[in-house]
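tool=predict chain=A
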Amino acid sequence: MPAPMPRSGADRMHYDMRKNYNYTRRKLFLPEYGRHIHEMIDSLLAIEDRRERNRQARAVIAVMGNLNPLLRDTADFTHKLWDHLFIMSDFRLDVDSPYPRPSREELTVTPRPMRYAQERIEYKHYGKYVERMIRALAGERDSRTVARTLDNLARYMRAKSYEYNQEHPNNEVIVKDIKRMSGGAVEIDEVALNNIRSDYKQHFPARSQRGSQPSRQRPQQKNGGGRHPQRHNPKNGTQRHNPQR
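tool=predict ok
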């Protein structure tokens, strides 16, 4: 049996506030429209006359369009509003829509899982594309193209190795890694690769020595500007101000 309704105004307001907390209400299907639109659509379900229910549904569609003026720029603006109307009614509203009525199954289709390429990278600091490019050179017949490509790849590998290890590797290490990634299928000019130099330069800021401080030069003060002139003191060889002058 429900609790009796309070008689006084303060008690009644407290009773309504306690009763209308959001956690006691049902979940909104489209929160961007607000609870009032959902309640208007719930009231459509209670109308028995179909003609009156259709008229009230078109009025709710007009209110929904005024609340979302940005949707009017889209081509299927009215179609979206009718779809939202059925969604907020939990697909229970029976009205004459100018568009095909959506179903719950159409809007709740589970997307297909995407397959990610699981490829093991042996030399992660070089990246996977370096390995692919070196393997692709196995089918190249032009020796000049292979030599130029390996030269550019070797310079790039030196730069990436420096970024990873913070030190320039020996060219012998680069040649050895190229041999391993190619699997011996690419002819390598070791003499040319041993003479490569990295074009990558890292500029470090100049560090000051510990304990040394930059010398500061004091600005030279010039007489004038309202200051008192100074005169020489013959006793101690210093100068002092003469406030009387």
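DSSP finds nine helices and two strands in the chain. The CA atoms of residues 173 and 189 lie 14 Å apart.
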